[in-house]
């Protein structure tokens, strides 16, 4: 009778032994994926992976500390960091501006951000230029394909002679050379 249970007992012992190793492997894989996401500045994926780690092991110090670090960075950078990362991920398929006014280019960028993000990113532009300058500054940018929105903003700023800065609640367009205020200290 003992012989009949012996194979079942061996298989049960092997499954029990494989269980924690498999979970450890999964845990390490999740941690590695989360770290890679952090290196790519993909905090949303990193947060998701670290949260999954905490579901597997609520006492995982690495995951808990990493989530705290992400939260701290987001608070320190405010919405500007989050918006900048979203702009880096949005890829505009094609750009053709020929003597377009700065105001029409900014409107195009606003619409593209809304469309490409499926409504997730609403760009607010604060233009600190006299109205006649916004309509008189021209931008010509042709033949560009698959360009990140963040880079496109830089090019538009350079070509129109303005400074474009991503801030907490808006993308600010100011005359080149105007000082950019330091971020407000958070309580």
Layout of helices and strands:
Blueprint: H1 2-39, H2 43-56, H3 61-89, E1 91-101, H4 102-116, E2 125-127, H5 131-136, E3 138-148, H6 149-160, E4 162-166, E5 171-175
Helix pairs in contact: 1-2, 2-3, 4-6
Task: Pick out its properties.
single chain; 187 residues; alpha+beta; Phage tail protein beta-alpha-beta fold; 2 domains; three-stranded mixed beta sheet; two-stranded antiparallel ribbon; 6 helices; 61% helix; elongated; disordered N terminus
Structure description:
- A hairpin with a 4-residue loop joins strand 4 and strand 5.
- The protein has two domains: about 80 residues, no CATH class; about 90 residues, Phage tail protein beta-alpha-beta fold, CATH 3.55.50.
- The strands form two sheets. A three-stranded mixed beta sheet has the order 2-5-4. Strands 1-3 form a two-stranded antiparallel ribbon.
- With about 190 residues, the protein is α+β, with helices and mostly antiparallel strands.
- The N terminus is likely disordered.
- The chain contains six helices and five strands, in the order H-H-H-E-H-E-H-E-H-E-E.
């Amino acid at each position: 009778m003992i012989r009949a249970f012996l194979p079942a007992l061996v298989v049960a012992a092997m499954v029990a032994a494989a269980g924690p190793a498999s979970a450890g492997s999964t845990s390490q894989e999740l941690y590695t994926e989360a770290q890679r996401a952090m290196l790519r500045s993909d905090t949303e994926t990193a947060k998701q992976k670290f949260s999954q780690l905490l579901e597997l092991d609520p006492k995982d110090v690495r995951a808990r500390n990493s989530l705290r670090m992400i939260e701290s960075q987001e608070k320190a950078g405010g919405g500007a960091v989050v918006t900048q990362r979203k702009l880096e991920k949005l890829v505009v398929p094609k750009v053709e501006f020929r003597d377009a006014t700065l105001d029409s280019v900014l409107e195009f960028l606003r619409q593209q951000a809304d469309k490409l993000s499926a409504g997730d990113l609403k760009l607010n532009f604060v233009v600190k230029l006299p109205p006649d300058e916004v309509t008189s500054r021209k931008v010509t940018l042709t033949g560009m394909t698959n360009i990140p929105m963040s880079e496109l903003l830089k090019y538009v700023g350079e070509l129109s002679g303005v400074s474009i800065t991503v801030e907490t609640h808006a993308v600010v367009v100011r005359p080149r050379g105007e000082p950019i205020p330091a971020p407000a200290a958070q309580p």
